[in-house]
Amino acid sequence: METKAFQKIYTKITQITKATCSLQATGIGYNEMAVVFGRLAQVVKIIGDEITLQVFAGTEGIPNNAEVIFLGKAPSLKVSEDLAGRFFNAYGEPIDGGPPIDGEERVIGGPSVNPVRRQQPSELIATGIAGIDLNNTLVSGQKIPFFADPDQPFNQVMAMVALRAKTDKIILGGMGLTNDDYLFYKNVFDNAGALDRIISFVNTTENPPVERLLVPEMALTAAEYFAVDKNQTVLVLLTDMTLYADALSIVSNRMDQIPSKDSMPGSLYSDLAKIYEKAVQFPAGGSITIIAVTTLSGGDITHAIPDNTGYITEGQLFLRKDTDISKVIVDPFRSLSRLKQLVIGKKTREDHPQVMNAAIRLFADAATAKTKRENGFDLTDYDERSLRFARDYSAKLLAIDVNINIDEMLDTGWQLFKKHFHLEEVGIKQDLADKYWPKT
After folding, report:
1. How far is CA 142 from CA 21, 270, 278, 406, 433, in A?
2. Does the chain have fewer CB atoms within 10 Å around its N or its C terminus?
3. What is the rounded CA–CA span in Å between residue 129 and residue 131?
4. pLDDT value at 164 more than 90
């Protein structure tokens, strides 16, 4: 071993697997970064003096006598106001042609916030998407995933949320994005003139998959800087957490760990929780809200990734194609925001809970009518009207391309009630109906 400018250099590797290499070394810290044969690596296991390094770009071609340089620090990000409007790779290096960031260096992957410093979430985050704001309202400090099939336009939905959400900063953590997806985000943010409040950390399909493990931590380190140091409201968008979990699985399998359900590592729950539990509302006003995409394999919600995610997060937003209107909607039956009751009717108009519940009940009546029709039963006049209501409700409120404020959503709901039903069929309190039922 030799030491050069505080860096420890070794040249004797004892074991090499597809993703890792091991060697004898002393004074090394867990998560410390190293360079192996010119490739970035990170310490993932320490047993006595035996150090195991995860090599991000893979170990192919690395000889046993390759040079291993320990950098003496864990992965870190330089934080300052200059992060805003920039695109970075998984290591926090600029990929947009701009200058390096000058700021305070912070180690990524620290612990989540002490519960004593947390406040119960109570601030509404409006996205402009009615399927979210009306039925599954988001609250600052919440953690919630989109469950979507891989062929659904979840990147477009995430970009829409980024542009419409009323927050100080938006931080995108893109994992396994295609080059087209990356350019899509870049162009959308650029054209909307919103770059000044958006920060992006991107790992594309051309980068090593294992690098994805750094992306959420980079995004959340930036989020903590703005939420804690600057008291800002921050929305973190992570896509796609299934690809993140796949990268975890690659590493654990190559380290010969015995896989758990669906070939995922046994640590999957705590690995996901470490990320999602960074969502927080601070008493001083800063907050971190996390929306993540979890793609489903063949719509399987029992797979280990969505299954574990559901235990950690506060609900889910479920995207599906509505065949009646040929648009993607936020499914009101399979979506849930467990914190919405903290803001609906309190931070929104008084009629919000009643309109939401009535609309979903009538939508359920339409689903029953549809089943009757498919099974060859005669439909009543009410069934026919509920089916027409469902089509209008999907097109004007549930479709992801609807961009209106919450008051307009509620007014639209009342108009649809009046168009298709009698007041007594809707089942809303008389005092609210007197105030909001359309007069014309």
Report:
1. 39, 18, 10, 19, 32
2. C
3. 6
4. no
Question: What structural domains and CATH numbers belong to the chain?
Answer: 2-70 (2.40.30.20), 76-341 (3.40.50.12240), 352-436 (no CATH)
Q: How confident is the model at residue 138 (pLDDT cuts 50, 70, 90)?
A: very high
Name the token pair of 402. Answer: 């609807």
CA distance 207 to 89: 9
Phi and psi for 231 in degrees, rounded to 5? Answer: 55, 40
Structure confidence at residue 143 (pLDDT): 95
Give, to the nearest 10 degrees, the angle between helix 352-374 and helix 406-420.
50
Q: Cis peptide leading into 82, omega within 30 of 0? A: no
Beta strands in 224-298 (DSSP E): 233-239, 280-281, 287-295
- The span from the CA of 72 to the CA of 24, in Å, is 16
Q: Would you give the DSSP letter of residue 112?
A: P
From 398, 241, 416, 412, select the one nearest 321 (Cα to Cα). 398
Q: Measured between alpha carbons, how far is 202 from 216 in angstroms, rounded to an integer?
A: 10
How large is the average pLDDT for residues 269-287?
93
CB 167 within 8 A of CB 161: no
Measured between alpha carbons, how far is 181 from 147 in angstroms, rounded to an integer? 18
Q: Residue 116: which residues within 8 A CB-CB, separation 6 or more?
A: none
Question: Per the structure block, which two tokens stand in for 181?
Answer: 């997806």
Q: How many Cα atoms sit within 13 Å of 179 on the Cβ side?
A: 2
pLDDT of 18 over the 90 cut: no
Q: What is the CA radius of gyration of the chain?
A: 25
pLDDT at 92: 94
Spatial CB neighbours of 423, under 8 Å, sequence gap ≥ 6: 417, 433, 437
Q: How far apart are CA 236 and CA 218, in angstroms?
A: 11
